[in-house]
Amino acid sequence: ASVLLRPGEAVAERGWSPVPATGYGWLPLLAGVALVEAVRLLAEVDAKLKWPNDLLVDGAKCAGVLAEAVPGDGAAQPPAIVVGVGLNVTLRADELPENPTGLPATSLRLAGATATERRVAALWRAVLGRDSVGLDDNFFDSGGTSLVVTELRHRLVQEFGREVRLADLFRLPTVRTFAGTLDGTTTSDTHSRAVTRATARREAMLTRDAWRNRSLDRPTEGQQ
Question: Which residues contact 176 (CB under 8 A, 6 or more apart)?
Answer without folding.
Answer: 112, 117, 135, 136
